[in-house]
C-alpha cells in the first residue's frame, strides 16, 4: 500500500513537470467552457435542443473530454514510454509488482480528472449559472463508468502500441472521432436521429449521454450505462490479455 | 551450498537460439563473472536467473527457490542493460522511491556518496551523463540490501577512473557478504574482480574456472626476448625442452615455446656463460585465453 502511495506521489510529481500535459488535461476543459460561455447566443435557451442552453451542454461535454484526454492521450503514452525505455523491466526486478505502477498511473489520472472536472463544474456554476449535477449519485456513477470505459480502451492502446510515440498517435486518432460522437463540435442534441443512434453506441457518446442526464436531474439511462459496462468488460479483458511489461 | 544453480539452460527466441546449453553454480560470497563476446547469450542467461524470462528447458535455482518466486525480488538486486528511468525523475527521487520498495533498504545517501552521486541528487535523469546513469543504476540494484547482486555490463560507458572506483565499490559490497554475478566483456574487469568465471560463447559455456586457471588452461605460450652477450647459434636453443621457435630481430633473439621455455633457455645460457641482456618475458593473458576459448567455440561450430 505504501508502495502504491509513493509511486502515485512520484507519478503525480512527474505529471506536474509536464506543462503541456497539465494545460491540456487540467486547465483546457475549463478554458473551453469559458470561451464558449462568452458567446452570448450560447447563453440563451434554445428551443431546438429542448430549451437548454448550449453552455449547459458543453459542461457535460468538457467533462467527457477531460476523461478522453487522460485516457487516450496521457496514460497510454506514459505507459508505452515506460515499456519502451525499459522502466517496466527495471521495476519487474524489484519487490514492487509492475501492476502497482499501472495502479499509480490510473490513480494519478483519476486525481487529475477529479480536479479538472471539479474546475469545470465550478467555472460553469460561478461564471455561467450552469447548475451543479442535480442527481449527484447518478453523476458519480456516470463519471466512474465513462472513466472506466475510456481507460480500458486507453490501456488496450498502451498494450498494443510499440512505442510511446505510437501510443500518442493512436490516442489522438481515437480522440477525434470519439469526441465527435460525444458532441464536441456539435452537441449530440443537435444530431440527426441516425447519428444520435450511432453516438449512443460509442463509448464517449454513451458517456456524454449518461453524464448529461445526471447533470439535468434524471438517473442515467440504462441503455447508456449498459453500453459503458460493455466497453469496460470487452476492452478491459483485451487490455489485460495483451498488456506486455517489456 | 550454492546460491545460484543453473543446469542445462536453453532459451530460444523465434529462430534464434540465444542460449543452447549453460550450466554453472555460484557459491555464497563470491564474485562470479560471466564473460563472452557480444551476442553470446550472457544477458539472456542473467535475465533467466533474474526471473525476467522463462527458460525453454533446463533448471535454475536461486537461493533454493524458483527464479520467478516473488520473495526473490527482495533478495536479489538486478542492474540491467537498457533499462531507463523517467526523464524528469531526479536522482534523489529515484533512490527514495526504490528504497520504499524494500523492507530493509541500505542508506541511499551513503550509497550515492560511494558512487560519486552526492553532487547530483537534484539532477533529472535525462540530464545525467552516461556514466552517471550507469552509477545510479548500480545504486538502485544495491539499495535493497540484496543477498545477490546481478550486474550486467557494470562499467560500460564509465571513464577509467569511474571504472576503478566502481570496482572498489563492488569489492566492498562483496566484503559485506553479498554474492555478485557480473556480466562483462572487459578482461581487465574480470581479472581484477572475479573469483571464478564462466566463459560463454554462442550460447554455451566453453570454460569455467578462476581467471588464473583460465589463463593456464590455454596452452600457455611464452615469448622470451633478449640480447645475448655473445652470438648464439639457433641450434643451441631449438633443441631445448619446450622451445617451439627461435626468431631473430637484429641483435635480439626471440624464443617462443610453452611454460617451460624460460627455465630451459636461462639454464642453457648460464651453462654457456652467456648473459641475456634486456630479458623480457611475455605471458599469455586472460585476453589471449578469451580469444582462444571463444575462437575455438566458433571453429567447432563451423566444423
Key features?
heterodimer, A: about 250 residues, mainly alpha, B: about 300 residues, alpha/beta, Rossmann fold, Alpha-Beta Plaits, 2 domains, disordered C terminus
Description:
The complex is a heterodimer of chains A (246) and B (303). Chain A is mainly alpha-helical and 246 residues long. Chain A has one domain (2-242). Chain A is 76% helix and 0% strand. Chain A has ten helices and no strands. Chain A has helices spanning 2-16, 19-37, 54-84, 87-92, 98-128, 136-160, 164-181, 193-201, 203-215, 222-242. In chain A, helix 3 packs parallel to helix 6 (136-160) and helix 8 (193-201) crosses helix 9. Chain B is α/β, with parallel strands linked by helices. Chain B has two domains: 4-216, 3-Layer(aba) Sandwich (Rossmann fold); 219-283, YebC, transcriptional regulation domain (Alpha-Beta Plaits, 2-Layer Sandwich), CATH 3.30.70. Helices cover 35% and strands 29% of the residues of chain B. Chain B has eleven helices and 13 strands. Chain B has helices at residues 42-49, 72-75, 91-101, 108-114, 130-142, 160-175, 187-193, 211-217, 234-238, 261-271, 286-302, and strands at 4-13, 16-26, 31-35, 57-62, 76-79, 148-152, 179-184, 196-201, 204-209, 222-228, 243-249, 252-257, 276-283. In chain B, the strands form three sheets. A six-stranded mixed beta sheet of chain B has the order 5-6-7-3-8-9, with helices on both faces. In chain B, strand 11 and strand 12 (252-257) form a beta hairpin. The longest helix of chain B is centred in the last third of the chain and has 17 residues, at 286-302. The two termini of chain B are 39 Å apart. Residues 299-303 of chain B have low confidence and may be disordered. Chains A and B meet through helix 1 and helix 4 of A and strand 5 and helix 3 of B.
What number of structural domains do the residues of chain B give?
2
> Quick check: average pLDDT of chain A?
92
Strand order of the largest sheet of chain B: 5-6-7-3-8-9
Structural class of chain B: alpha/beta
Number of strands of chain B: 13
The whole-angstrom Rg of chain A is 18 Å
Amino acid at each position: 500500500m505504501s508502495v502504491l502511495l509513493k509511486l502515485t506521489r512520484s507519478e503525480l510529481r512527474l505529471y506536474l513537470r509536464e506543462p503541456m500535459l497539465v494545460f491540456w488535461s487540467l486547465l483546457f476543459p475549463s478554458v473551453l467552457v469559458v470561451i464558449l460561455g462568452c458567446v452570448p447566443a450560447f447563453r440563451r435557451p434554445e428551443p431546438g435542443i429542448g430549451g437548454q442552453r448550449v453552455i449547459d451542454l458543453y459542461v457535460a461535454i468538457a467533462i467527457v473530454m477531460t476523461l478522453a484526454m487522460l485516457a487516450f492521450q496521457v496514460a497510454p503514452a506514459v505507459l508505452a514510454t515506460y515499456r519502451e525505455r525499459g522502466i517496466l523491466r527495471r521495476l519487474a526486478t524489484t519487490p514492487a509488482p509492475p501492476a502497482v505502477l499501472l495502479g499509480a498511473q490510473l490513480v494519478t489520472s483519476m486525481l487529475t480528472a477529479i480536479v479538472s472536472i471539479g474546475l469545470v463544474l465550478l467555472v460553469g456554476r460561478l461564471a455561467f449559472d450552469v447548475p451543479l449535477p442535480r442527481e449527484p449519485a447518478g453523476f458519480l456513477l456516470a463519471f466512474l463508468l465513462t472513466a472506466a470505459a475510456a481507460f480500458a480502451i486507453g490501456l488496450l492502446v498502451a498494450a498494443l502500441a510499440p512505442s510511446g510515440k505510437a501510443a500518442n498517435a493512436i490516442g489522438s486518432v481515437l480522440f477525434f472521432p470519439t469526441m465527435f460522437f460525444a458532441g464536441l463540435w456539435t452537441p449530440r442534441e443537435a444530431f440527426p436521429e441516425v447519428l444520435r443512434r450511432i453516438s449512443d453506441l460509442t463509448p464517449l457518446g454513451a458517456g456524454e449521454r449518461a453524464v448529461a442526464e445526471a447533470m439535468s436531474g434524471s438517473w442515467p439511462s440504462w441503455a447508456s450505462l449498459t453500453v459503458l459496462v460493455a466497453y469496460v468488460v470487452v476492452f478491459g479483458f483485451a487490455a489485460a490479455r495483451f498488456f506486455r511489461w517489456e | 551450498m550454492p546460491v545460484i544453480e543453473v543446469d542445462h539452460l536453453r532459451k530460444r527466441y523465434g529462430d534464434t537460439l540465444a542460449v543452447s546449453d549453460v550450466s554453472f553454480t555460484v557459491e555464497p560470497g563470491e564474485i562470479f563473472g560471466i564473460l563472452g563476446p557480444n551476442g553470446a547469450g550472457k544477458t539472456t542467461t542473467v535475465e533467466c536467473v533474474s526471473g525476467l524470462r522463462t527458460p525453454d528447458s533446463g533448471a535454475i535455482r536461486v537461493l533454493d527457490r524458483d527464479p520467478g518466486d516473488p520473495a526473490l525480488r527482495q533478495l536479489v538486486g538486478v542492474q540491467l542493460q537498457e533499462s531507463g528511468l523517467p526523464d524528469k525523475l531526479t536522482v534523489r527521487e529515484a533512490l527514495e522511491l526504490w528504497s520504499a520498495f524494500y523492507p530493509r533498504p541500505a542508506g541511499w545517501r551513503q550509497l550515492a556518496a560511494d558512487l560519486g552521486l552526492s553532487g547530483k541528487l537534484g539532477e533529472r535523469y535525462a540530464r545525467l551523463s552516461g556514466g552517471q546513469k550507469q552509477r545510479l543504476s548500480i545504486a538502485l540494484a544495491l539499495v535493497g540490501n540484496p543477498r545477490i547482486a546481478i550486474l550486467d555490463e557494470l562499467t560500460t560507458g564509465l571513464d577509467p577512473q569511474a571504472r576503478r572506483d566502481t570496482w572498489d565499490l563492488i569489492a566492498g559490497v562483496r566484503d559485506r557478504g553479498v554474492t555478485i554475478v557480473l556480466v562483462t566483456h572487459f578482461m581487465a574487469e574480470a581479472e581484477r574482480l572475479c573469483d571464478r568465471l564462466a566463459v560463454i560463447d554462442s550460447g554455451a559455456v566453453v570454460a569455467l574456472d578462476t581467471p588464473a586457471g583460465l589463463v593456464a588452461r590455454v596452452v600457455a605460450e611464452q615469448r622470451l626476448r633478449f640480447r645475448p652477450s655473445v652470438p648464439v647459434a639457433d641450434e643451441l636453443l631449438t633443441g631445448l625442452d619446450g622451445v617451439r621457435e627461435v626468431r631473430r630481430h637484429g641483435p635480439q633473439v626471440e624464443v617462443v615455446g610453452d611454460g617451460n621455455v624460460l627455465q630451459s633457455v636461462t639454464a642453457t645460457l648460464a651453462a654457456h656463460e652467456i648473459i641475456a641482456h634486456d630479458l623480457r618475458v611475455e605471458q599469455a593473458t586472460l585476453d589471449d585465453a578469451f580469444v582462444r576459448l571463444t575462437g575455438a567455440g566458433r571453429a567447432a561450430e563451423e566444423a
